[in-house]
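=== Structure Prediction Worksheet ===
Name of assembly: unnamed complex
Input type: mixed (protein and possibly other molecules)
Chain count: two
Listed entries:
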Amino acid sequence: MHVPDGFFTATVSIGAAVVAAAGVGVALRRAKQELDDRTAPMAGLVAAFIFAVQMLNFPVAAGTSGHLLGGALAAILVGPYTAVLCVAVVLLVQGFFFADGGLTALGVNITLMGIVTAAVAWGVFRLITRVARNRAAIVAGSFVAALVSVPVAALAFAVLFAIGGTAPIDAGSVAAAMGGVHVLIGIGEGLITAVTVSSVLAVRPDLVYGARGLAKPLVLRTATGEQVVTAPEEPQAKPIRPFLVGAGIVSLLLAGVVSFFASGSPDGLERVAEDKGFLGQAGDHLFGGFALADYGDVGGIPVGVAGVIGVLITLAVGLGIGYALRRRRKVTT
Amino acid sequence: MGAGHHHQLFRAGDTVVHRLPPQCKLVAVVAFAVVVVATPRERFWVFGGYLLLLAAVAAVARVPARFVLRRMVVELPFVLFAFAIPVIGLGERVTFWGISLSVDGLWASWNILAKATLGVIASILLAATTEPRAMLLGAQRLRMPQLLVQIATFMLRYLDVVLDAMRRMKVARESRGFQARNLRQAPVLAKSAGALFIRSYERGERVHLAMLSRGYTGTMPIYREISADVGQWLTAAALPVAAAAVLFLS
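=== Predicted Assembly ===
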């Protein structure tokens, strides 16, 4: 579901837009390594595929149906950086051409559905396929990666919401509701992603980015004996990337879980206050205070210091990842 | 959401709005959306003013209200969510028709509905008066990275091809008696998605080879130079400037 205009305060929208721009910038550089000069046509077709696959409704239960989000699928099939580009383009097209998702919320949408989803899915996928490299591990890894990426993106949404949502809903219950619903969605997403990856593996294993290096070497059996013609492509060992992605996941999870508990106790307090009838004297809710910040007199732009700090932290994390990737690129090339 | 998309986005016409260079329109719409989002939610009349401004643009561009309304279904999921906020919101509560509602929740609900609706109408008007290809050229003029513009170009060009391939698979599935009843049928759909990916990817490879054989070196030639003069920028700026004027003067 795409976030519309007016859902987040202007500060958070702009902060997320900067993070999204930095992420897409990094992805633009690295995608050229994943796809060399074929990037534009290939990524364009994959973006069209994601757009189409999002229209493929599958039944969940009792008349409700869900549809694939596709971020994890794209990351496994074409690589995480190309996936970020494809999802970003899909969201841009949906925003500008189909009026789906607010234009000022594009940064939030790209950050959550593109960058967070692809990074988490790829990190989880790499962790699993690092342990065991065979077809079953890739299918299982696809399932877990897609399953985990959806609720983590939902929790990231809840964190942004706690920083600068415009609705006075308790951040803990947003996290719980979003997380709960999206675990269910994630199971469906994981199932479809795993079967899709498995069916592509069966026909064109060379197309699955996550399965590079899995192909057996081509062997010529002649009268004189067996002769290896091509060595299997070994994916270069990249120790730092999984670490960064893993650190990202841990921090996201921490942020989600911590905000959950942080808001849990004031909520309980508030309930007690309500019961005891002294709610009027009680101060503002810890996170409600942020949400109320857009009552400010300066043209609706919140001046809440907390909101700004939250955005700055997000920014610092995003820029830090970008900087680390860039430095590493210079070292390797 | 994928369900609400259908294809008649652009309405050909020859009005002032249609003739404006796309880069001016893009900047104007985004600036307008920023002004709308920055407006304090207590100022009801300002939002009415914004709506009048958009109605004026629609009238000048000869986009009928029915066209805009039909395309606004995209917004539905969030409208439903907006209606839920007052019920689950925190803070001071009022009772209205026997339902206990949160005052802040009502404000938030109004805030999201008003701003999202204005944003959606502005995007619909932009897409209705700008050819998709021109919109991408405009984005390129605004220094959007070449690669992103190219990806979006290919996506838009082959979107209908991929969607048609998907439709043919659906016809093939259903003519063989397939019906999606519950999650157990999902693997069939997933295999369709896998086949669709292979077809899209292989088409991409063929397109790339065809482009290489025609001399593609990584950039697309621009046949139509679209430059905007000061007058056109000023015309396009009328919308956001008027919106800002409504905000600050009222």
